[in-house]
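To assess whether the prediction recovers the assembly geometry, we first specified each molecular entity separately, as shown.
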Amino acid sequence: MKKKIVSLVMAGLLVVSAISGCGGSGGSGSSAAAGSSAAAGSGAAAGGSTIKIGSIGPVTGAAALYGEAVKNGAQLAVDEINAAGGIGGSKIEFKFEDDEHDAEKSVNAYNTLKDWGMQILMGTVTTTPCIAVTEKTSADQMFQLTPSASSQDVIAKDNVFQVCFTDPNQGIASAKYIGTKKLATKVAVLYNSSDVYSKGIYEKFMEESKNQSGTYTVVAEEAFTDESKTDFSAQLNKFKSAGADLVFCPFYYEVAAVVLKQANEIKFTPTFFGVDGMDGILGVENFDTKLAENVVLLTPFVADAQDEKTQKFVAAYKKAYNNVTPIQFAADAYDAIYIIKEAAEKSGVKAGMKTDEICKLLKEAITGLSFDGLTGTGMKWSADGAVNKDPKAMVIKNGAYTAMD
Amino acid sequence: MDFLTHLINGISLGSIYAIIALGYTMVYGIAKMLNFAHGDVIMIGSYVVFITVSTMGFPTILGIVIAMAICTVLGMTIEKVAYSPLRNATPLAVLITAIGVSYLLQNIALLVFGANPKSFKSVVPFEPLVLADGQLVITGVSIVAIITGVIIMVALTLFVNKTKAGCAMKAVSEDRGAAQLMGINVNGTISMTFAIGSALAAIAGVLLCSAYPTLTPYTGSMPGIKAFTAAVFGGIGSIPGAMIGGLLLGIIEILGKAYISSQLADAIVFAVLIIVLLVKPTGILGKPINEKV
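The predicted structure of the complete assembly is given in tokenized form:
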């Protein structure tokens, strides 16, 4: 008899979950959204009068520095906002989940956060997992603002917005920067062909480089993959014999640490020019920072900038986190939380609202926003989710990031 | 001159593959099993050197000796705990166990050392050799890797052919049952093989991480697979075969990257492997299989 009751309950649960599952998949239409929002709504109601913002990123693994920075930057903003009275009177609850820069783990983290009652997602941090998670947030109609996932594929869904540049913008901006500042005459490009982030920037860089033929030419382009990211001797030797005086490196700092060391071993000393993925190179454990001397990187945030906003942020960050200097990702996340706050206050988002309601309101509000933050002034969003702001470049001098004029 | 540079880089990479492949091939030759955890023993060895030399400040040689000792104990323990109870099981069961041990080691390392990449300081103190007005630069690690590879191969060949323990190994590899009847301690011999293979793994790990200085819990897995390929390439079970297979694999990989396509380098390596195995199914130096009628 007992067994029968258990099996009946199980069957009942199965039916319920199947129904809500159906509702979720058809949830993009306003009338069909009942199923998914009921599930999400009940979770949010349990939270009471707080707005629950979740975040996902790698705090362990190869890209751990990024996740750590985003987590800390966001927490700082959340604490400040809560101390000042919250969003329109309701406090923020913030929860961060680790995804180890892995798409599958990221989706699991998203599900965990949804069970917790998340109403807005500020994440994810890195591109490949982010694309996987946007599938879920789009189906659930959850507002998503990524601080740092920069591929254009990330904002393919209408509920996803970016704080950082899209990859094409980084590629184009880098090519223009090298051209207008006359940093080089012979440029070589090394990229990771198995990574959407790296490849996206590479493609746009090559396109824009054609327009810069007056100042520099691309003399060599080489690729590597995730399976072969340890040995760069063949590529670097080719660059060396091609006489490249600048190497464009659109990939993450972990690989860059290896490339810099191997280039140094074969006495190849061009200017290495990275994009935002290069940020973090000075934080690699046991890395000889002398190797990174004179590396240039294009990034919208410089910790030693002299404006009041940056100074205040850097001081607060250092105080809260053992004197660590914040990198761009921390600033992106800090901005992201404030962007959500401004958009939410503008559109009248309340704590008890359902996720799809919040999503609808924020989507409209963010496109009308002009936001002044750490990573840019007058930041504006188009409906496709991309941000419009100016890039800044910095150079590593004496083991520290220094603004480039 | 470019070609020479690429060739030397290829030989250097190949020497590291060869040292790893020696471990695979010895274990296969004697225990007739593929020890897929070999790549992860390399990783553990590298971490030991990283901790002893970079963190605790021991002299390099002492660090390497400690790493070899720990890897030897680790290899013998793995053999005793995971493989020896399966001595009479199907080869498939042993293979799956080996894969399990590999994942176990990776995840233990993930727990103990964390997943953050560590930048491994090269243990080779020599300055790179600069020839022909800086057109040809040979890194210190390359030279050490090549020399170490040759020394290990010669020493192993002498050991197997000239010593009593080596002859016991050959006998066990030839016919385990007959060797036992002749009074050879089969379990002891297999244990010793694992000990030698694992000590070699520690050396390979140090060279690998000196040349390619990022250390993570997954550092050993890809080189492990490549070295396994090299062992098959050269004829698995054959010591000179592993050396030749490793060198060829390294050279093909680097030259493929340099002259064909840096994206297709791995595809080229494995395409060559398939062609070699089609022409010579037992590998370059493999013994022909006698069909018993």
